C-alpha cells in the first residue's frame, strides 16, 4: 500500500491507459478511472475525502461555460451548409475554372476544402462531401487513385486548423486562452498549410503528369455560345477585385482612423486580410449583379457563375471570422450568427426543409453530447489527478529533458504524433493538453502558439494510417467495387484501402513539415495576436499619489463657492487659520516615501 501511495499519480495514468486499451469509451474510461482512484486515494490517505466535494462545482462550471457554446453553433452551421449543396456548387464551379490545367481538379479540391473549412469547421462533413462529389469525377478522367484519395482526405482535415475550428475552441478552453486569439494565431498557419498542399500537387503535375491529367474539352460545360471558355472576363474581374482588396489593405489604417474618429497607426494582419477580402468580393458581386440585371453581357457564363457561387460562403466567412477579428462579436456570438446565416443561405437556395433541419439538429446534438461527456469524464479524472499532485509528477518527469524549450517541444510533438494513432483530437485535448499546458507556461512558452502547434500536430490524427478518421470517412464513400460510370459508360475500378493509405502519407509528411516550420518561425502565430500592453505600476502609483496630495491641499482651502458665500455674508472672505506644518514630510503625505510610491499611496489612503 505504501508503494501505491508513493506512486499514486503514475499508477493512475497507467490505469487510464489500461481502460483505453481494453476498448472502453473514452468518456467512461476517464470517469471510471477518476472515481476508482478517487476512492482509493481517500482510503490510502493520499488526499482528504473533501476532495470529491469539489466535483459538483466543477460540473456546474462546465455547464456554465459560454465558450463551449460555440461548438454546437459551428457544428450546426457546417451541417446545414453541407446538406444544402454548397460544397457541390463550389466544386463544380472551381473545377470548371482549374479543369484545363494539369492537376486542376486536385487544386480545386484543395481550394474548396479550405473554403469549406472556413465556413463549416467540421472534418467529417468536408471529407464526405468532397468524396461523394469530386472522387467520381477524378476517377472518371484518369487521376491516380492514391493522389485523388490523399487530396480529398487532406483537404477535409483543414477544417481542424482553419478557423472556425472546433478543436481550436476546445484547446482555448483547456489552455485558458480566448477563442479569438486562437483563431487569429491559426489563421496564417492554416492557409500556409494550404499552400504546401498546392505546391505538392503542382510538383506532381509537372514531374508526373499522368497522375493528374487535365479535364478533356467535353467536360468543360460553362462555355460561351461562340465556343470560348470565358476566362478573359473572369481574369479581368479577378484583377479588379484583387486591386480593390490590395488598395483597401494598404489604406486600412486610414479607414480605421476615419471610422473611429481618432488616429489608428496599425491594424492586425488578419483583420486586413478579412476586411480586404470582403471589400474585393463585394465589388465583384456588384459588377456581376449589375451585369445580370442590365443584361449587358460584360461577363462570361463562367465569370458570372463563379462570382455568384463564391460570394455567399465568402460573405459567411466575413460574418463569422470578420466580426470575431474586428472585436464586434465573441466566438460564441459569431457561431450563432454563422448558424443563422447558414439557415438563411439554405432557405434562399430553396433547399431548407424540415427533414434537413432535423438531421442537422440531431447530428449537432450527438456531437455536442459526445464532447460534453468527454469533458465531464476528463474533469473528474483531472480533479483526482491534481489532488494527488499528478501535475508535479509530470513536471518533474519532463523537466529532466535536455534542450530546454526546444527539447520539451520536440518530445511533446513526438508524443502527440504517436498518441494520435489511437486517440482523436477531442481525447488528446481533454487528456494530454491539461497536463502539458502548465509546464509550457512555466517554461515561458506562449500558450496560444503552443495551442496552434498542437492543433497542427493533432491534425495528423485524421491522416494516420490505419486509424485516421478522415481515411475512415473517405473509405465509407469511396467505391469498393467496380462500377459503370454514367457519363462515359466505362467500367471504373474500385479504390482500395491501401491506395487511400498510400495517398495519405505525403500529406501527413506535409503536416509534420508545418509543425517544424511553426517551431522554427513562431512569429507566424504570435505576430497575428494583439500586442500586450505593459503597465508600469510604479508610475500609476505615483500619479495616484499626486492626485491624493492635490486633493489634500484643496481640502485645506475654501472652495470658490464657499469664498463667495463668506464674502456675501461678511463683506470679505475671512482668511483661513492654518497651523504651520511640523515638517515638509508632514505637510505632504507620502513625500518621505517618494522612492516607493505604491507604499506611500497605501499610507496616504490609510490617513484619509
TrEMBL record:
Key word Membrane present: yes
Basic and acidic residues biased stretches: 596-608
GO CC terms of this entry: plasma membrane
Membrane topology of the entry: Multi-pass membrane protein
Pfam family, one: DctM
Function comment: Part of the tripartite ATP-independent periplasmic (TRAP) transport system.
UniProt protein name: TRAP dicarboxylate transporter, DctM subunit
Naturally occurring in which organism (per UniProt): Alicycliphilus denitrificans (strain DSM 14773 / CIP 107495 / K601)
Lineage, opening ranks: Bacteria, Pseudomonadati, Pseudomonadota, Betaproteobacteria, Burkholderiales
Amino acid at each position: 500500500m505504501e508503494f501505491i501511495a508513493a506512486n499514486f499519480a503514475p499508477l493512475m495514468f497507467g490505469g487510464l491507459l489500461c481502460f483505453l486499451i481494453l476498448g472502453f469509451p473514452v468518456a467512461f474510461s476517464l470517469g471510471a478511472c477518476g472515481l476508482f482512484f478517487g476512492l482509493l486515494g481517500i482510503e490510502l490517505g493520499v488526499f482528504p475525502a473533501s476532495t470529491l466535494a469539489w466535483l459538483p462545482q466543477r460540473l456546474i462550471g462546465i455547464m456554465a461555460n459560454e465558450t463551449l457554446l460555440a461548438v454546437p453553433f459551428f457544428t450546426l452551421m457546417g451541417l446545414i451548409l453541407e446538406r444544402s449543396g454548397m460544397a457541390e456548387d463550389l466544386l463544380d464551379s472551381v473545377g470548371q475554372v482549374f479543369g484545363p490545367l494539369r492537376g486542376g481538379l486536385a487544386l480545386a479540391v484543395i481550394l474548396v476544402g479550405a473554403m469549406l473549412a472556413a465556413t463549416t469547421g467540421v472534418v467529417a462533413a468536408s471529407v464526405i462531401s468532397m468524396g461523394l462529389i469530386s472522387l467520381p469525377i477524378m476517377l472518371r478522367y484518369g487521376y491516380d487513385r492514391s493522389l485523388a484519395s490523399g487530396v480529398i482526405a487532406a483537404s477535409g482535415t483543414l477544417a481542424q486548423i482553419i478557423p472556425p475550428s472546433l478543436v481550436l475552441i476546445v484547446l482555448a478552453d483547456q489552455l485558458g486562452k480566448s477563442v479569438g486569439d486562437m483563431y487569429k494565431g491559426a489563421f496564417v498557419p492554416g492557409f500556409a498549410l494550404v499552400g504546401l498542399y498546392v505546391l505538392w500537387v503542382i510538383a506532381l503535375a509537372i514531374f508526373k503528369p499522368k497522375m493528374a491529367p487535365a479535364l478533356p474539352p467535353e467536360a468543360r460545360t460553362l462555355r460561351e455560345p461562340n465556343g470560348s471558355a470565358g476566362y478573359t472576363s473572369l481574369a479581368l474581374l479577378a484583377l479588379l477585385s484583387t486591386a480593390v482588396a490590395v488598395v483597401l489593405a494598404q489604406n486600412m489604417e486610414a479607414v480605421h482612423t476615419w471610422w473611429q474618429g481618432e488616429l489608428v497607426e496599425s491594424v492586425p494582419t488578419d483583420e486586413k486580410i478579412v476586411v480586404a477580402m470582403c471589400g474585393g468580393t463585394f465589388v465583384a458581386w456588384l459588377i456581376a449583379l449589375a451585369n445580370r440585371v442590365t443584361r449587358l453581357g460584360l461577363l462570361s457564363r463562367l465569370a458570372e457563375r463563379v462570382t455568384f457561387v463564391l460570394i455567399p460562403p465568402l460573405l459567411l466567412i466575413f460574418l463569422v471570422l470578420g466580426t470575431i477579428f474586428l472585436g464586434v462579436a465573441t466566438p460564441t456570438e459569431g457561431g450563432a450568427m454563422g448558424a443563422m446565416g447558414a439557415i438563411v443561405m439554405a432557405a434562399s437556395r430553396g433547399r431548407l426543409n424540415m427533414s434537413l433541419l432535423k438531421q442537422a439538429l440531431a447530428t449537432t446534438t450527438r456531437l455536442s453530447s459526445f464532447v460534453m461527456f468527454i469533458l465531464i469524464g476528463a474533469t473528474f479524472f483531472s480533479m483526482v489527478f491534481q489532488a494527488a499532485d499528478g501535475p508535479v509528477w509530470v513536471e518533474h518527469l519532463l523537466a529532466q529533458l535536455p534542450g530546454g524549450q526546444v527539447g520539451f517541444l520536440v518530445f511533446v510533438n513526438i508524443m502527440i504524433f504517436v498518441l494520435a494513432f489511437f486517440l482523436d483530437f477531442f481525447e488528446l485535448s481533454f487528456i494530454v493538453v491539461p497536463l502539458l499546458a502548465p509546464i509550457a507556461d512555466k517554461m515561458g512558452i506562449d500558450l496560444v502558439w503552443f495551442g496552434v502547434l498542437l492543433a497542427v500536430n493533432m491534425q495528423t490524427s485524421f491522416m494516420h494510417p490505419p486509424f485516421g478518421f478522415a481515411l475512415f470517412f473517405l473509405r465509407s464513400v469511396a467505391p469498393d467495387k467496380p462500377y459503370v460510370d454514367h457519363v462515359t459508360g466505362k467500367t471504373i475500378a474500385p479504390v482500395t484501402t491501401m491506395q487511400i493509405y498510400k495517398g495519405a502519407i505525403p500529406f501527413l509528411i506535409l503536416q509534420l513539415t508545418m509543425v517544424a516550420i511553426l517551431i522554427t518561425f513562431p512569429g507566424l502565430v504570435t505576430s497575428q495576436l494583439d500586442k500586450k500592453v505593459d503597465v508600469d505600476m510604479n508610475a500609476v502609483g505615483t500619479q495616484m499619489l499626486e492626485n491624493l496630495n492635490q486633493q489634500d491641499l484643496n481640502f485645506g482651502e475654501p472652495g470658490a463657492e464657499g469664498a463667495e458665500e463668506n464674502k456675501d455674508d461678511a463683506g470679505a472672505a475671512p482668511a483661513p487659520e492654518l497651523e504651520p506644518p511640523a515638517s515638509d514630510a508632514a505637510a505632504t503625505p507620502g513625500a518621505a516615501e517618494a522612492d516607493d510610491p505604491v507604499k506611500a499611496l497605501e499610507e496616504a489612503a490609510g490617513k484619509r
